[in-house]
Structure to design on (371 residues):
């Protein structure tokens, strides 16, 4: 870096850009992951230490004008580029808003320019304040954009086709309509249930409405959106969020404000299942558990087991695993005693399963044909 006349910070940035598109990028992501939060915190601490608050008071007008120009010009350029490349209007707004602030690379450039005497110290201080304040505008700008999109997509259009749910009182609210939620929605619709969908993906909202779903765009962790969707009159809410934190937030919100609403939730694995149980959710589904059990049943049949026995084995395993899941809700995950208990539970599961299957083999009667 010294031979090229580059600072350590600039050299690190260039190295990161080059490696980001290499075959080593996944390995680098894994290596950096434990330190990501620490380094991010260190970055903002260093920004705060470099910031001269006095400049904000002495050059308030220049700072405000600079922030306004930076955010306006950059977001305008980004919006124009997004339009040229054919992005949808809603995506263009979000794209321009989330990248409207000055980037962290500005600090590297300004420091390099100051070290080469291209910037005076007072100019450097002023530019640092402008870039830092532009970063602070991003959350506010995104809230404004989010409200604009919510108003647009949740507004009722008289010319729209009549949605599948014509009633304002849905029986079921589905939060999230990805692969998991779509299966649930199709099953409910096939049984003539009135459903309302809450979806955060703007691009999915228009598609869902064209197919006749009643959809609200927005964040289901907001109480007002749940009220607007009819949570006070609905019988059930099915939460299929990708993020466990969002799922738990919606669960607590419903328990507090809609106590008569039956809560059903998606869990990605055992950890999320434990969290839902501890939160008082009785109806949940681990997204890969049932499909894995079904494939396991078919594997038993390919190994020569009678279809009836394979089905019974599947049901016994499901029941015993759920019992173990409820018994092993850990107060502190990762504890040595907890790990020992898990191993013991696994042995108990195998023994119980063996006894149950022996009992079944003595009462064998069932189907003779495959499904």
């Amino acid at each position: 870096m010294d031979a090229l006349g580059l600072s350590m910070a600039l050299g690190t940035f260039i190295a990161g850009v080059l490696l980001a598109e290499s075959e080593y990028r996944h390995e680098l992501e894994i290596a950096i992951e434990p330190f990501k939060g620490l380094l991010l915190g260190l970055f903002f601490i260093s920004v705060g230490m470099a910031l001269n608050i006095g400049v904000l008071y002495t050059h308030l007008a220049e700072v405000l004008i600079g922030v306004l120009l930076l955010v306006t010009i950059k977001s305008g350029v980004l919006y124009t580029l997004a339009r040229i490349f054919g992005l949808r209007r809603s995506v263009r707004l979000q794209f321009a808003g989330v990248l409207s602030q000055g980037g962290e690379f500005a600090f590297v450039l300004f420091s390099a320019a100051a070290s080469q005497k291209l910037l005076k110290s007072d100019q450097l201080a002023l530019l640092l304040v402008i870039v830092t304040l532009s970063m602070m505008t991003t959350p506010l700008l995104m809230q404004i954009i989010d409200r604009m999109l919510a108003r647009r997509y949740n507004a009722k259009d008289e010319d729209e086709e009549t949605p599948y749910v014509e009633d304002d009182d849905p029986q079921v609210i589905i939060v999230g309509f990805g692969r998991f939620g779509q299966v649930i929605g199709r099953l409910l619709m096939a049984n003539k249930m009135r459903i309302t969908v809450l979806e955060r993906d703007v691009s999915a909202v228009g598609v869902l409405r064209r197919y006749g779903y009643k959809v609200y765009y927005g964040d289901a962790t907001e109480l007002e959106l749940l009220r607007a969707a009819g949570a006070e009159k609905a019988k059930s809410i099915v939460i299929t969020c990708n993020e466990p934190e969002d799922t738990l937030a919606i669960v607590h919100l419903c328990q507090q404000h809609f106590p008569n609403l039956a809560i059903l939730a998606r869990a990605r694995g055992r950890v999320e299942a434990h969290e839902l149980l501890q939160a008082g959710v009785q109806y949940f589904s681990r997204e890969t558990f049932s499909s894995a059990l079904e494939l396991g049943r078919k594997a038993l049949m390919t190994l020569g087991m009678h279809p009836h026995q394979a089905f019974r084995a599947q049901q016994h395993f499901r029941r015993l695993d759920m019992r173990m899941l409820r018994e092993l809700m850990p107060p502190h995950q990762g504890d040595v005693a907890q790990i020992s208990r898990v191993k013991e539970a696994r042995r108990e599961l195998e023994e119980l399963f063996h006894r149950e299957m022996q009992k079944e083999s003595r009462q064998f009667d069932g189907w003779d044909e495959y499904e």
Confidence is low (pLDDT under 50) at residues 156-167, 365-371. The chain has three domains: 51-154, 172-287, 291-362.
